[in-house]
Structures are given as structure tokens and as C-alpha cells.
Design goal:
- This protein is mainly alpha-helical.
- The protein contains eleven helices and two strands; from the N terminus they run H-H-H-H-H-H-H-H-H-E-E-H-H.
- It has two domains: 174 residues, Up-down Bundle (Ferritin); 40 residues, no CATH class.
- Helix content is 49%, strand content 2%.
Length: 301
Amino acid sequence: MFMHNKRLQYTVRLSEPNPRLACVLLEQFGGADGELAAAMRYFTQGLGEEDPGRKDMLLDIATEELSHLEVIGSIVTMLNKGVKAQLSEAQESEADLFAMVGQTGTSAKESILFGGGPALIDSAGVPWTAAYIDSRSEPTVDLRNNIAAESRAKIVYERLINITDDPGIKEALGFLMTREVAHQKSFEKALYSIEPNFPSGKLPAMEQYASVYVNTSQGEGDMTGPWNSGDQWDRIDDLEQTMPIDGGDGTATVDLDTGDKAALAQLATRLASDTTRDPTTGTDLGAGPGAGRTKQLEPMD
């Protein structure tokens, strides 16, 4: 059961309305790395978690993310106060109102459809979608994904902080950014409390391939480092060694029964190419400058 406390987790103090900034901040309201996505990611993971410690942590953080959604939504609402009032009361002329919608940087959807209120869209007006939630119900996978999600959100907050000079907004966004750091630490601790936690899942990797590094991008700019060289790696620079790496002949085969073989032979015969013909095609008939070489046709009378 949830209960709502009317006080925000962090006090929102804005110097003035700024609809253009409100539009940008929607990225953290209804965007892929925003607070709603985080809350739903951790909430669904928590419901499906079998370990009581991780379950408690995930539900704690999921609920806090909802409080962060409230903070961002409140900032967006305050930044849009002027637009909302003008559109609702129409104290300006029609031309001035029309210009205001575009000049403030708000999208038409944000201003006209949502009236300046916070909507579950990102900064480009794209609606929030559950497709942002990519959990796998495997803790060593989901915790790594959560760590990455918190890292992405921190970077977004950094960029948002850099585009505003409103000290109150900077403080609030700085708080939200810092909580991303704290959550990442919790997820890291939870991940490394599982031993072993790599590779993810139950099945072991195939030993003969688990330490192979294949240098498939060769030429100027080739670099070596601990990610591709040293005692942990069997490095392959001669790509012929990887074609195929398993020692087979590199072809794809399947065992078919008699009926499938007969049908496949009939299909191949029906669709066989005639390599002796050079037919005139539409590109020949319509060729013009820049078409490259095409079949030469007899001039028409």
C-alpha cells in the first residue's frame, strides 16, 4: 500500500517561469532515462525478486524514484505557470499567444494539449512507453542494467544542470543527480553480494572461446590494452583462424527427411537463375545520366 506525503523529498525553489526549460526537463519525467522509467524498472524487478534483501532494496529505491518523478513534475509545472495562465485566461491577443507557444520553446502538444502541465512525454514530445523497461528477472543481469541506468540518468542531469542559470533548479537537479550516485552504489553492493556473479546466468561459457579476442578491425588506429592483450587473452590477428573458429568447414547444414529434400529440390529447380540470358530491365529502359553502365538498346524510330 502506498501513502502520499504532500511534502516533496527536495524543496523546489524557482526564480521565474521558463517554458523552454520545462520542455527540456520533460526528458527526466517521461523519457527513456527518466524517473518514471526508473521507478517502473525497479518496482517490477522487486515484485519478481526471490531474495528478501534485494526485494526490499528494489522496492525502496522504486518508491524513492516516484518521489523524484514528483520533484521533476513540480519543477515542470512551476516553469510553465506563465504559459498555463495565459493560455487558460487568454489575456493576451491571439497573435501574441500563438507567438508565445513557439517562442518559448514549448511544443504545441505540451502547450495546447497538456496546457503546460507535466505530461508523460520526453523533451521531443514522444510518449512514455513500457518498452523502456528491459528487465530480465535475472539479478546479475538486472543489477548491471540498473547500474548503467543510474549512470545514464546522472549524465542527463549533469547536462540539464549545465543549461540553466536558475540556482534553485540547479540545486534540485543536483540533489536528483546525487541520488543516482547513491542508488548505483546500492546496486553495486547488491551485485557483488552474489558470488559468483559473472558470467550472468547459470550455464558456463564454452571454455575454448571465453578468453579469445578477435582483432576484426585492423589498420591505422589499432591499439592494445588489458581489454585485448595479456595473459587473460588468446589474441587472434590472423582472421583466417576465425573462419571458422570451431574447425568445421564453415557451411550451414540441416538434416532433412526425404519429403523435405524432394520439395527443396523442386523449389530450387523452379527458381533457378538462367546465367545465359541478359534480359532488358527497367533500369535499362529508364536509364539517364548518372545511371552507370546499362544495356545498350536499339534507337527507336
